[in-house]
Write a structure and sequence with these properties.
Helices cover 68% and strands 5% of the residues. The two termini are 33 Å apart. With 219 residues, the protein is mainly alpha-helical. It has 10 helices and 3 strands, in the order H-E-H-H-E-E-H-H-H-H-H-H-H. The protein folds into 2 domains: 3-66, Arc Repressor Mutant, subunit A; 71-211, Four Helix Bundle (Hemerythrin (Met), subunit A) (Up-down Bundle), CATH 1.20.120. It has helices spanning 3-18, 29-36, 40-52, 71-93, 98-113, 120-141, 144-150, 157-160, 168-186, 190-211, and strands spanning 26-27, 56-59, 63-66. A hairpin with a 3-residue loop joins strand 2 (56-59) and strand 3 (63-66). The protein has a 3-stranded antiparallel sheet.
Amino acid sequence: MSKAADLAYERIRNKIITGDYVAGSHLKEEQVAEDAGVSRTPVREALRRLDAEHLVKFVPNRGAYVASWSTADIEEIFILRAMFEGHAAYRAASRITPAALTELEACADAIDEQLPGQTERQRFAILAANQRFHAIVLDAAHSERLNKALSWLVEIPIILRTFERYTERDIMRSNHHHREMIDAFRTRDARWAQNVMDTHLRAAFRRYVVHGNGSGSGN
């Protein structure tokens, strides 16, 4: 990919992830090129790459559209995340360092400090701590394959937004899972850590279903 195509890819992808380009919207090359500050040729390259990542869908004779996700699609994504992140937690249990454990606890503490978590500032802080928690676990797994497998799953826009309508009780339950995972890591119990991560992500999907499509990232 050329530098211009890389730039277009990053800018288009960011707009999809943040919701500036909403699900189902038509990505007209002229407008996208203007938004990205590049010509149409690198935009085409970027859109093909995003199509491969399932963030963009090409419709014959109509062009590119931001991918839309059905409840069945989202369920499959959560199941895949549970499989991959569960395995990451399993591997991390025997590899995680004391420093990483301390940082995991700091993430859990940061989430508790923001409760009830209903203001925009509180939710931004909780989401950041939550994402950091999962990133630490993945780093501790020391697996390039898992990193690649999870790279796009955790950033699908509707997944990132599932947290927006979490209640205080939902957040507390989610953070309880975080603390149980820390306990599993401290005792080097790989199977326990894996089971908690699986439960954690399956519970996140149930909250997505309860709150309805278009809500946000309880994970």
